[in-house]
Specification:
93 residues; alpha+beta; four-stranded antiparallel sheet; two-stranded antiparallel sheet; 16% helix; binds iron/sulfur cluster
Length: 93
């Protein structure tokens, strides 16, 4: 049986900051370090951070589990922002 894995529980799923043109405001995006998220064009795809718990991959050969998915995914869903948020460098540094 094919096993569905949560990318959020994989060490290759990382959060990156994507800056606005002012270089002060930024949004959070998630990407797969193994480049397994791709658009039809082949270009690398990034997703909004608040959607990370929805990212699943079936039988990913690069999956590297970080821990027990329960209760991690449940807690993650509860703690993620509910929408895309804009941060500023002053908020975090
Ligand atoms: S390596 Fe596979 S399981 Fe890990 S983040 Fe990328 S697509 Fe998801």
């Amino acid at each position: 049986m094919k096993e569905k894995v949560y990318c959020a529980n994989c060490e290759h799923c990382i959060v990156v900051r994507v800056f606005e043109p002012d270089n002060i405001k930024y949004v959070l995006r998630v990407k797969c370090n193994k480049k397994r998220w791709a658009k039809r064009s082949g270009e690398e795809k990034q997703y909004k951070y608040f959607t990370v718990a929805r990212r699943v991959h079936t039988d990913c050969p690069d999956f590297s589990q970080m821990g027990d998915p329960n209760p991690f995914i449940k807690n993650l869903r509860r703690e993620l922002p509910v929408k895309d948020e804009i941060y500023t460098l002053k908020d975090s540094e």
